[in-house]
Design brief:
15 strands, OB fold (Dihydrolipoamide Acetyltransferase, E2P), 314 residues, six-stranded mixed beta sheet
Length: 314
């Protein structure tokens, strides 16, 4: 059978729906295993470009025989499986979706998404939804830090439509991954972009002040002929993969003006004497919550290093 090029739209229980030409095939991985350069428990992800062969005996079915090189990927460390998990592939932008409240604003969660986007070759964009509920000073302050670090921030309200045109302008002509906590309003935003999608919208748990999943698996949606969206399920925690503790400071641009002044060139900006970054923190030149974000992530990366490299220090 001839090989056909296609793109993975979604996968459920190791069966992948692949768009090939003007049709879709339900495909399994031929031989059940694809060779990958590093340990990943899901070798195929939404957005992957693949080569497939049609099943001559079952109409609409086939096998994935090869995955093409990825131009980008969004990955996280899966603690339970002790392996990297690819959430999406071959996109240009990562829309890091947050809410001003209900559920609460979690800037350190967004910091992790921004870093993972940069690791995987995507451009991060912070999307702050539910601005109709008001924006507290602490939220505005943290948003300004992202802007000073040259990250694009869009404020919007899926309820009122404010800022949706700004979002449309940014994503037009791109393949875009939407990601965020459960309840931040991703589905409502996508419905605002294209009402015909009619995605299910969840409620917020009054007991836990967090969202309830409405998207169960990642799926690629064509918004128009030029724009495609990969909608991912709401998540509560995100563990960064692909870097070590020694690499982390490079993803905090506000450290750069000060790090050259550290007493030790190998300073990790945690508890070393003569750390110029910590002195800048004490002077107020570095936002304290951004530094707390750095320390928390630094500590969490030890689990990734142990699981992936076999050592806490790499």
């Amino acid at each position: 059978m001839p090989e056909i090029s296609g793109q993975v739209l979604y996968g459920i229980n190791n069966i992948y729906t692949v768009a090939v030409a003007d049709k879709k095939l339900q495909c399994r991985i031929k031989g059940k295993v694809l060779k990958t350069k590093k340990r990943q428990y899901n070798p195929i992800a939404v957005g992957d470009l693949v080569e497939v062969v049609a099943d001559p005996f079952s109409q609409g079915k086939g096998w994935i025989i090869r995955r093409k090189e990825r131009s980008s990927s969004l990955e996280r460390w899966n603690k339970k499986r002790r392996a990297c998990q690819v959430l999406a592939a071959n996109a240009e932008l990562l829309i890091c979706t947050a809410s001003t409240s209900n559920p609460p604003f979690r800037p350190r969660f967004i910091d992790r998404l921004i870093i993972s986007a940069e690791i995987g070759g995507l451009i991060p964009v912070v999307l702050l939804n539910k601005c109709d509920l008001g924006v507290e000073p602490v939220v505005r302050e943290r948003v300004e830090v992202w802007k000073k670090n040259s990250y694009r921030v869009i404020s919007c309200s899926a309820l009122t439509g404010k800022g949706i045109s700004d979002l449309e302008e940014v994503i037009n002509g791109n393949t875009v991954v939407f990601i965020g906590q459960s309840g931040v309003g991703k589905s409502s935003i996508l419905n605002s972009l294209e009402p015909e999608l009619k995605l299910k919208v969840g409620e917020i748990s009054s007991k836990y002040d967090r969202g309830i999943h409405t998207t169960n698996f990642a799926v690629m949606i064509s918004l128009n002929k030029n724009t495609r969206i990969i909608d991912t399920p709401g998540i509560r925690e995100f563990e960064v993969s692909g870097i070590t503790q020694r690499d982390l400071h490079g993803f905090f641009p506000e450290f750069s003006p000060w790090s050259a002044g550290c007493a030790y060139s190998s300073c990790l900006h945690i508890d070393e004497p003569g750390c110029a970054v910590k002195h800048a923190l004490e002077r107020g030149d570095i936002h304290p919550d951004r530094y707390r974000s750095y320390v928390r992530l630094f500590n969490d990366l030890s689990d990734f290093q142990k699981g992936f490299y076999g050592s806490a220090y790499s």
